[in-house]
């Protein structure tokens, strides 16, 4: 594939560079085969599957409850949201009504998880341009969120917090004051972050206008979530098809214009502030009451198929559930946003410089656990 | 206090002369002694600089940095180097062995050559060359060649890209780097470093040549491959750039050379722009040391704040921004000198 070119007396040749699966900025065990013309990327090929664990197949030999811990091992940066997407689908199939307090707790932890996931994205975006300090800043705040998770469910990363019918634990003592503290501190921290990286001359020069995706192309490639909204398509499941109790909350959906790396980055920054608004309202209106619906000891879903989806941190996270009436799913398929979003990466990388191609990969925010499943 | 090191050198000189050697041999022996002294000084500073960089980075990033080995973690690098020396030494299959190995051995040489002419205090240099500044510019650009040797010899595509970037970057930034000194040379009329420092008795050249100083800082940063200009080793895209394939002791050489270069750049800046050993109350060599470390801290601050610049932006910035500004600075300096002379001859100054 490497093409030799003759320019005057000077003969140049494209060369192939293998990037990954072991490479500092592939966000896991992703591999790309790059064809380079000097510093320019001529072609890029995605190679995935290094982290394939067959989670969808494993589901077929687990009961509906047993599968919950597997979900947060897909997108391990947004475990709560993955739990939520799955249990919501099962609840939909069972036709369960969830107690109000449980819904509010889910909203609080879900939006905290969204912030945590977006923090990793903006941090790795900065890090992929060598902004080490910004990276540390973001991870410092993410630690605070993980501390909150530890309080509420005992684990920090793979939370497995939600159950079919509600949540297993009520909010523990001391959680709300700590959350208040976080809600007060975090906007200032975001301002700091804006100062150190968003407003940085070099950062802006390196992201504005790089790898633009127009709305049409984004839809063609099936992008969802912040990546789609960065391209100017206003589509957020929380607004257009409200699930849970999102219709009770007052928040805005930030929409970008150019769909370039900067917009994709900025979507996350703006969404974090909106998530804070949602958490604020949820904490203020938190009702008393039960946290678990009446659920039968053994879950049996009537034969048929169900599709449930939520607005995950990285895009639309969908679970397609086929049941044959037994205690175990007949088939589960996950619509994983990272996997779909990764599809557009070769399109984005072509024609950009090697350094920008790396930043573009960070800008679509993939998690390899979810890509390979 | 001011002459403490000169006095020590004098005693050693008397001691060697006591053996009844000829004048030339004593001179040679003294150069050797001074060389060793500077080498020890540089290596001790490198050990401290690595530690300092990690602590400074920790300070900027709201964490602690190394604080376990020795008081406040000061011996961290000693342990790191010991660890590196005990590691397996790997030469990649298919590497150009001679070039690959030589690069690691000679990476320190240009840096040490630079230190040979730096006046650390009044009369405190190994050799006071007549064309010291020119000599510095000449030997410091040798680093480019060695980095390219490392990139080429490794036979690794990442290393090769790193080496190529190093050549493009360092050769380009050499030009504004040299031009930033021209104003100073015009003002003093000498390339001799001790003369340049003497000329800053009343006013430092940072006051007379502020633009040149800023150009020096930027181009100097690019010359020593530190962030935001660390493209040749750009971790995120090139793993470790030209030294990707180096392990063990050879890697340690590259690692330490980076900091030796950083210190050299600060020493040059102190000599040329910050008045070298001049300063009130404290002894001259201490002033030199303090100014040098202020510059080093500035470099670290920049490195831990900015993201990495892109290669084409870097070239544009060099050729379209730095170079015209440095040329304009030379022009303005020339006009200024002439105007000053005219005013003097007319007796208005």
Please describe what this structure looks like.
The complex is a heterodimer of chains A (373) and B (349). Chain A is α+β, with helices and mostly antiparallel strands and 373 residues long. Chain A has one domain (2-372): Orthogonal Bundle (Cytochrome-c3 Hydrogenase, chain B). Chain A has 15 helices and 8 strands. The mean pLDDT of chain A is 88. Chain B has one domain (79-345). Chain B contains 15 helices and no strands. Chain B is globular. The model of chain B has no long low-confidence stretch (mean pLDDT 85). Chain A binds chain B through residues 15, 17, 23-25, 39, 126-134, 136-137, 140, 196-197, 200, 202-203, 205-206, 353-356, 358, and chain B through 57, 60-63, 157-158, 161, 227-228, 230, 234-237, 239, 304-313.
Quick structural summary:
The complex is a heterodimer of chains A (373) and B (349). Chain A has 373 residues and is α+β, with helices and mostly antiparallel strands.
Q: How many beta-strand runs of chain A?
A: 8
Whole-number total of structural domains of chain A: 1
Q: How far apart are the termini of chain B?
A: 38 Å
Please identify the top-level CATH class of chain A: Mainly Alpha
Number of helices of chain A: 15
List the helices and strands and how they pair.
The complex is a heterodimer of chains A (373) and B (349).
Chain A: E1 4-7, E2 10-13, E3 15-19, E4 31-37, E5 40-47, H1 55-59, H2 68-71, H3 79-94, H4 100-127, H5 132-153, H6 175-198, H7 201-207, H8 215-220, H9 226-230, H10 237-240, H11 261-284, E6 304-311, E7 316-323, E8 331-335, H12 337-342, H13 345-349, H14 354-363, H15 368-372
Antiparallel strand pairs in A: 1-2, 3-4, 4-5, 6-7, 7-8
Helix pairs in contact in A: 3-4, 4-5, 4-11, 4-14, 5-6, 6-11
Chain B: H1 4-17, H2 23-60, H3 76-85, H4 97-106, H5 109-115, H6 132-140, H7 142-153, H8 157-188, H9 193-198, H10 205-208, H11 210-223, H12 235-238, H13 248-272, H14 284-303, H15 311-345
């Amino acid at each position: 594939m490497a093409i030799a070119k003759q320019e005057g007396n000077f003969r140049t040749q494209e060369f192939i560079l293998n990037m990954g699966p072991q490479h500092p900025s592939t966000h896991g065990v992703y591999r790309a085969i790059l064809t380079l013309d000097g510093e320019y990327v001529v072609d890029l090929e995605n190679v995935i599957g290094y982290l394939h664990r067959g989670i969808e197949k494993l589901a077929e030999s687990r009961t509906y409850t047993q599968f919950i811990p597997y979900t947060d091992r897909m997108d391990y940066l947004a475990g709560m949201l993955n739990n939520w997407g799955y249990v919501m689908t099962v609840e939909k199939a069972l036709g369960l009504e969830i107690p109000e307090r449980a819904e509010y707790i889910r909203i609080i932890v879900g939006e905290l998880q969204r912030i945590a996931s977006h923090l990793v994205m903006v941090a790795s975006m900065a890090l992929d341009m060598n902004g080490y300090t910004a990276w540390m800043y973001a991870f410092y705040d993410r630690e605070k969120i993980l501390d909150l998770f530890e309080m509420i469910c005992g684990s920090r990363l793979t939370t497995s917090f939600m159950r079919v019918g509600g949540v297993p634990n009520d909010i523990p003592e001391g959680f709300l004051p700590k959350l208040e503290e976080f809600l007060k501190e975090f906007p200032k921290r975001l301002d700091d972050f804006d100062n150190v990286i968003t407003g940085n001359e070099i950062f802006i020069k390196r992201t504005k206008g790089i790898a633009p995706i127009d709305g049409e192309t984004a839809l063609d490639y099936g992008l969802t979530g912040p990546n789609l909204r960065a391209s100017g398509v206003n589509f957020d499941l929380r607004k257009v098809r409200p699930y849970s109790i999102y219709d009770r909350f007052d928040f805005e959906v930030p929409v970008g214009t150019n769909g370039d790396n900067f917009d994709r980055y900025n979507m996350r920054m703006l969404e974090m502030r909106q998530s804070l608004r949602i958490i604020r309202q949820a904490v203020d209106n938190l009702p008393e009451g039960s946290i678990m619906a009446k659920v039968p000891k053994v879950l049996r879903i009537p034969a048929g198929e169900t599709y449930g989806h939520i607005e995950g941190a990285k895009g639309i996270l969908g679970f397609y559930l086929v049941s044959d009436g037994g205690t175990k799913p007949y088939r589960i398929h996950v619509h994983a946003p990272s996997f779909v979003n990764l599809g557009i990466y070769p399109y984005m990388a072509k024609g950009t410089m090697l350094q920008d191609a790396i930043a573009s990969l960070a800008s679509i925010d993939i998690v390899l656990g979810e890509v390979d499943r | 206090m001011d002459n403490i090191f000169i006095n020590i050198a004098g005693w050693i000189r008397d001691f060697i002369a006591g053996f009844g050697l000829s004048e030339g041999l004593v001179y040679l022996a003294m150069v050797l002694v001074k060389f060793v002294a500077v080498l020890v000084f540089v290596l001790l500073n490198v050990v401290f600089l690595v530690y300092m960089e990690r602590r400074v980075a920790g300070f900027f990033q709201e964490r602690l940095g190394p604080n376990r080995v020795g008081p406040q973690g000061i011996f961290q690098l000693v342990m790191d180097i010991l660890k590196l020396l005990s590691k397996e030494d790997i030469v990649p299959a298919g590497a150009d062995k001679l070039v690959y190995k030589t690069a690691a051995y000679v990476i320190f040489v240009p840096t040490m050559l630079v230190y040979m002419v730096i006046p650390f205090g009044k009369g405190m240099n190994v050799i006071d060359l007549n064309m010291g500044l020119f000599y510095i510019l000449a030997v410091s650009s040798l680093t480019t060649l060695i980095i390219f040797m490392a990139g080429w010899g490794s036979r690794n595509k990442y290393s090769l890209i790193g080496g190529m970037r190093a050549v493009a970057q360092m050769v380009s930034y050499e030009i504004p780097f040299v031009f930033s000194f021209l104003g100073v040379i015009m003002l003093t009329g000498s390339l001799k470093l001790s003369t340049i420092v003497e000329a800053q008795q009343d006013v430092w050249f940072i006051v007379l040549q502020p633009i040149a100083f800023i150009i020096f800082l930027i181009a100097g940063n690019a010359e020593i491959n530190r962030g935001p200009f660390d493209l040749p080793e750009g971790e995120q895209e090139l793993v470790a750039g030209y030294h990707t394939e180096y392990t063990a002791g050879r890697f340690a050489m590259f690692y330490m050379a980076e900091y030796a270069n950083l210190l050299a750049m600060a020493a040059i800046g102190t000599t040329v722009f910050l008045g070298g050993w001049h300063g009130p109350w404290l002894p001259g060599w201490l002033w030199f040391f303090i100014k040098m470390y202020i510059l080093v801290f500035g470099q670290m601050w920049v490195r831990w704040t900015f993201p990495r610049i892109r290669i084409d932006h870097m070239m544009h910035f060099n050729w379209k921004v730095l170079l015209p500004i440095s040329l304009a600075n030379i022009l303005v300096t020339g006009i200024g000198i002439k105007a000053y002379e005219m005013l003097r001859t007319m007796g208005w100054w």
